[in-house]
Specification:
Blueprint: H1 15-22, E1 28-32, H2 39-49, E2 51-56, E3 59-67, H3 78-81, E4 85-87, H4 94-99, E5 106-109, H5 116-124, E6 142-147, H6 150-162, E7 168-172, H7 177-181, E8 186-192, H8 213-233, E9 234-244, H9 253-262, E10 267-269, H10 280-298, E11 309-311, H11 313-316, E12 321-328, E13 346-347, H12 350-364, E14 373-377, E15 381-386, H13 387-391, E16 400-401, E17 403-407, E18 415-416, H14 418-424, E19 432-435, H15 437-444, E20 449-450, E21 457-463, E22 466-474, E23 477-480, H16 484-490
Parallel strand pairs: 5-6, 5-8, 6-7, 8-9, 19-21
Antiparallel strand pairs: 1-3, 1-4, 2-3, 7-16, 9-12, 10-12, 11-12, 13-14, 14-15, 15-17, 17-18, 20-23, 21-22, 22-23
């Protein structure tokens, strides 16, 4: 190993520039969560706050954020805690932009934690696919979000719930499992592979400490196994996106080239420049050239160099990153017959779901449960997902599915959860407590507030058109039911 981990890249890029940018603080970057909000709303909010937003070239919902006033941490911003925007590094937005998920598809995110890319996939699946005939009914599709560690899955689960993601099944399996047990089942597969993470050194000063030759070889072995599994799990005509946040050719170009060599008749490379949005094509031109330069150094003369994306930290002042896009053109293994498992949760009988839907429609003046959605029973709690998720059969019991919906109470059929209130409460017309800035500050300090004396029982709290949570009204007072974690994060900044 060289004296510095970056010395090995002397033939590929300017080392002084690489080191210079890698020592700079990483620019803060966010993605508007279009499940709950829009990029335009984020822009208006940023303007009021005095933030300067610069678009990410390859993501229409992504923005670099610069602030003169940093007295309040961006992570304690109200809209962030409500899930309206998500912290996500600009390069990390690339894989889903290249995956191009569409409504109605079945998609696997094989190594999904901490959830930034899964929530980005879910947001992309809310719209209408360009291929859908006019007037055709198209559902949101299904995301299978997988990881292997309980702690990581809990982080993933929390991120998806705060983002309002409903059409998801969480699983806990080694990525290699999908090759055999879900052969050919997915329209698109993302494998954002575990790696030596050299590209993250701008936010993690320890990232370069563990880049031994042995560590790189071990990572590359696992990555080849995971990418091969992703290839098997994809359907014919399906797209596979492989990505890492490291710089080593062994974990990037070499991994993909080895899989292409193994499945030379069943895979083709998709040029990312053909998938570019906004200014992405210009950005991708340089990234493809940088990867081709690396490939030329790895291969014998005359071998094909493919259009992969290699993002050096200095290229766009981001983290280092790598992406490759593949399409499966023929079968890679025979699908085996598997015993299918039931979900851990039980679907709620249709009559009970209709009763709950009617109760909530009467209470809040809008449909909290929409067409194509299904409640599942978790005991005293209910979850909500889509009928497409409910119909998907898996050869493994899920870790959990959908979005928290509500708690059963003795006096009413259900008291909707905070996540469901944030997702649908903005459209409520009954039993809504509309608050102003001063009342918001009191609530965020954990206090109760006064309210309209006509309000009684469980109500939704709305601020500037956004539902921020729930409360209970009685005798002109509103009992604060905002989540404790939300108050904890905000109480020292209001």
């Amino acid at each position: 190993m060289s004296d510095h981990p970056f010395d090995r890249y002397a033939g590929f890029t300017d080392l002084s520039t690489l080191r210079e940018y890698s020592s700079k603080p990483l620019r803060r970057c966010v993605r508007s969560n279009t499940i709950l909000s829009s990029a335009e709303e984020l822009k208006r909010w940023a303007e009021e706050k005095g933030w300067k937003l610069q678009p990410v070239p390859w993501c229409t919902e992504g923005f670099f954020v610069d602030r003169d006033d940093r007295s309040v941490p961006l992570g304690k911003d109200l809209l962030h805690l409500l899930g309206h925007f998500y912290f996500q590094e600009a390069s990390s937005m690339l894989p889903v932009g290249l995956l191009q998920p569409e409504p109605g598809e079945i998609i696997l995110d094989m190594a999904a934690a901490p959830g930034s890319k899964t929530s980005q996939i879910a947001a992309a699946m809310q719209g209408r696919p360009a291929s859908a005939p006019h007037g055709a009914s198209v559902g949101r599709g299904v995301i299978v979000a997988n990881d292997v560690q309980d702690a990581r899955i809990q982080t993933l689960k929390s991120a998806l719930q705060r983002s309002g993601v409903m059409n998801v099944i969480l699983t806990k399996r080694m990525g290699q499992w999908f090759a055999r047990y879900m052969t050919g089942r997915f329209d698109r597969v993302l494998i954002d592979a575990p790696c030596t993470a050299q590209g993250t050194c701008r936010k993690d000063s320890n990232a370069l400490k563990y880049c031994s030759e042995l560590g790189i070889r071990k990572a590359a072995k696992l990555q080849r196994e995971l990418l091969e599994s992703a290839v098997h799990a994809a359907a014919i005509g399906g797209r596979i996106v492989y990505s890492t946040c490291t710089l080593t050719p062994e974990e990037n170009e070499e991994v993909v080239l080895s899989i292409l060599n193994k499945f030379s008749d069943q895979l083709k490379v998709v040029d990312p420049r053909e998938l570019a949005v906004n200014q992405g094509k210009v950005a991708f031109d340089a990234a493809v050239r940088d990867s081709i330069a690396v490939q030329h150094s790895l291969q014998s003369a005359g071998q094909t160099a493919y259009p992969f994306l290699r993002i050096w930290p200095q290229t766009y002042d981001t983290e280092g990153f790598f992406c490759a896009v593949l399409e499966k053109t023929a079968p890679t293994r025979e699908a085996e017959k598997m015993e299918l498992k039931h979900f851990r949760e039980k679907p709620l009988p249709r009559g009970q779901q209709q009763e709950i839907a009617q109760f909530l429609r009467t209470r809040y003046g809008t449909d909290i449960i929409r067409g194509g959605e299904q409640l599942f029973d978790r005991g005293d709690h209910l979850a909500i997902t889509t009928e497409e998720v409910a119909r998907l059969k898996l050869p493994v019991a899920d870790y959990c599915l959908g979005l928290p919906f509500g708690k059963r109470l003795r006096d009413i059929p259900v008291y909707i959860d905070h996540e469901m209130a944030v997702l649908r409460g903005g459209e409520a017309t009954e039993n809504v407590c509309v608050i102003q800035e001063e009342q918001l500050q009191h609530l965020l300090q954990g206090q109760d507030i006064s309210c309209d004396a006509s309000l009684l029982g469980h109500v939704l709290i709305r601020y500037r058109g956004w539902c921020i949570g729930r409360g209970r009204a009685r005798n002109g007072m509103l009992k604060n039911h905002l989540p404790r974690w939300m108050i904890y994060h905000l109480q020292d900044v209001v």
